[in-house]
Amino acid sequence: MDTQVSWNITDIAELPSVSGGELGGEYTFAQFHFHWGSVSTQGSEHTINGIAYAAELHLVHFKTEYGSLGNAIKYDDGLAVLGIMLLGGLIDNPNLTPIIDGLATIQNSGDEESLATMFPLQNLLPANTNTFYRYSGSLTTPTCNEIVTWTVFQDVITISENQLEEFRKLLGDDGEHHIVDNYRPVQPLNGRTVEKITLS
Ligand SMILES: [Zn+2]
């Protein structure tokens, strides 16, 4: 269960894409969503050197040559997800304002609202995108297919406690309980290697 933002654009050529960064091809943006905690000492799905963050942003991309998200999940290299840690603090992050304002209009699980303000996806990336952790892993939601090339940036972005509260106010499917702690606990490595890459 999460809050997902997707684009109402159907022409693949108009969608943002990522390539380089040792991804092995071009990936087209599909959606982004957040995971967050009930308190700011938890919420991220990854930990970096044992540290969990208040929230984690996932920018989900599918391999462009597979044509769509639905088709790409059939392939081992179908998806590339960029993971960005959100460090809780006191000061509002103005780059998150269009999203936070959008949350305020959502009353029920499954509601769809258009964001009033468009913004470049670049605004959601940390200042330094040259250093990141890379591994092959799975989707963190069922069916957890092992088809994701993960890129978790070492640099973080910030979010204020007030902004986090707007996420924590969202109601789940039962219309009663708030959506919090919608992150999957850290999984064992199971022999996978996590590579730290610094692009020069
Ligand atoms: Zn996610």
Which value, in Å, is the CA radius of gyration? 16 Å
Oligomeric description of these chains: single chain
- CATH-level-2 architecture: Roll
Find the CATH superfamily.
Alpha carbonic anhydrase
Which small-molecule ligands are present, each listed once?
A: zinc ion
The number of strands is 9
Structural class per helix/strand content?
mainly beta
Morphology: globular
Reading the helices and strands in chain order gives EEEEHEHEEEHE
Write structural notes for this entry.
The protein has helices spanning 69-72, 97-103, 161-168; strands spanning 3-6, 17-18, 27-36, 55-63, 79-89, 131-137, 148-153, 157-160, 195-198. With 200 residues, it is mostly beta strands. It has one domain: Carbonic Anhydrase II. The longest helix is centred in the last third of the chain and has 8 residues, at 161-168. The chain is globular and about 40 Å long.
List the helices and strands and how they pair.
Elements: E1 3-6, E2 17-18, E3 27-36, E4 55-63, H1 69-72, E5 79-89, H2 97-103, E6 131-137, E7 148-153, E8 157-160, H3 161-168, E9 195-198
Task: Provide the descriptors you would attach to this structure in a database record.
globular, binds zinc ion, Carbonic Anhydrase II, mainly beta, 200 residues, 9-stranded mixed sheet, 9 strands
In short:
With 200 residues, this protein is mainly β.
